[in-house]
Every structure is written in C-alpha cells, then in structure tokens.
Amino acid sequence: MNFIEFKELLSKKLDLKLDSYKLNRVERRVYSLMRRHQIDTLEECYERIKKDPDFKEVFLKHFTINTSEFFRNPTSFKFLDKVVLPSLFSRKKKVHIWSAACSNGAEPYSVAILINEMEIPKHRYKILATDIDRYILQMADLGIYSNQALLRVEPEVKEKYFHQIDEDRFQLDDKIKKQVNFGYQDLLKEEFDSGWDLIICRNFFIYLTKEGKDNLTRRFTEALNPEGVLFLGNTEFIFEPELFNLKKMNGSFYQKLS
C-alpha cells in the first residue's frame, strides 16, 4: 500500500476530507505516530485504526494539532482590542463572534476577556467556538490551563480572571467560561451558519492546500456580515483578497467589502 492509497482509505474510514490538507503534513503526522507506536507498515496502521477504537482515538488526537495560548501574537490582539472590537460594537447592537478551529479554547476566551475589560454587557455579544476534536472541546470547556498557556497574560489580568489550582495549573473564572459556547465542527465538510461579525481562524490555513485555503476563505467570507472581519494567524495571508470580496485591514485581519 502506498501513502496515497492509505490516505484515501483513511479519509473514508475517519470521515475526514484529507485532500484539503497538504500531503507532506499528513505524511509527517502519520509516520511520527507509527514510530511512536512501533508500527512498521501503512497496512498495519490502517488495520489498527479499523479494529482498535482506542488507537483510532489516539490517531485522531495526534492528527488534529492542538496548541494554543492566551493572547498569542500580542500585537494582533492589541489591534483586535483597540480597533476591531470597538468598531464592531460601535456599529452593531449585538456582535456575533465565531472562533473556528478553536483548539483548547485559549483564543475565544482571550476575546471574552478583552470584551469584559471593555465593560460590554453580555446581551450585546455571542461567542461560539468550534473544533473537530471532541476531546479538546471537553478540555476547553473545563477551562484549566498551564503556566505555559498564560505566559502572555498580563499579571493583573491573570490575577483577575484565573485562580491557581496547583503549581502549574490555573482555573479560568466562571464568568468568562459562561461567555463562550463550544461545539463540534468539521470546517472542511460541514455547512456553517452565516451572520458573523468576526470570524477567528488562526493557524489552521497553514495545514491546507491552496485549493483548501481558497475554498475555506470563500466560505468564511460568505458567512460574514458586510464589513465583518476575518482574523487569521500571523503567518497566514490571503493574496489578492479582493478576489474573495475582502480587503486587508492590518497584518492578518481582513474585512468583507460588502
């Protein structure tokens, strides 16, 4: 069995749209897991996925990379805080925010903290956070984070919104936890709602082929309200954004034209 055949079988078995992911990244993830579990061939790996539910779950967790932290790329979050959010709340009675591929919840919770610091009433916004990894969604809902995830949190913000559990773990305040709703979402396969004013999808595009990125960008734009904003990772750029009815605002921020 060659890797293309393996990938096609895997796509059907796991119900994942792997053609939208860069082939070299898929290969690296698969072979690193095989080495870890001392699996010699792709055939053996596929059989384990088919017959062993626990290994199947391990494979899915390994394939979906879940690394995030609060206020990752501080300059971007400063622009979000000082420009994007004030503009949205000045124009809208209620602001609808979607954190797509939210991983461990650090990013949507970061946005909730910023909005709380702005003293915006809860009835004026909605935050939805989605991911394909059901396990990481459970962890995000718990709101427990390590020191590493909080390195970029200002001391006064950390003291205000986090309660220390032990030497390395902190519990996010219930007030912030209640402001984010989590749900399962496969961005590459499922339809998603429209009417969003801010869509945050950071560090997911880097794993996709050009066709996958273009398709997702188009769908995100369609889901945005006029003048809505798409917030990507700091190394993710949309070339010729006007082709997607977008204009570049600053860094990795793009605004829908109409």
Shape: globular
Architecture per CATH nomenclature, i.e. the level-2 architecture of the largest domain: 3-Layer(aba) Sandwich
* Unreliable spans: none
> How confident is the prediction overall: mean pLDDT?
92
Produce a short descriptive summary.
The protein has 10 helices and 10 strands. The protein has 258 residues and is an alpha/beta fold. The strands form 2 sheets. Strands 6-2-1-7-8-10-9 form a 7-stranded mixed β-sheet.
Q: Please, could you describe this protein's structure?
A:
There is one protein chain. With 258 residues, the protein is an alpha/beta fold. It has 2 domains: 3-63, no CATH class; 74-256, Rossmann fold. It contains 10 helices and 10 strands. It has helices at 3-14, 23-36, 42-51, 53-63, 74-91, 106-117, 134-142, 155-161, 174-177, 210-223; strands at 95-100, 125-131, 144-146, 162-164, 169-172, 181-184, 196-201, 224-232, 246-250, 253-256. The strands form 2 sheets. It has a 7-stranded mixed sheet with strand order 6-2-1-7-8-10-9. Helix 3 packs across helix 4 (53-63). The mean pLDDT is 92.
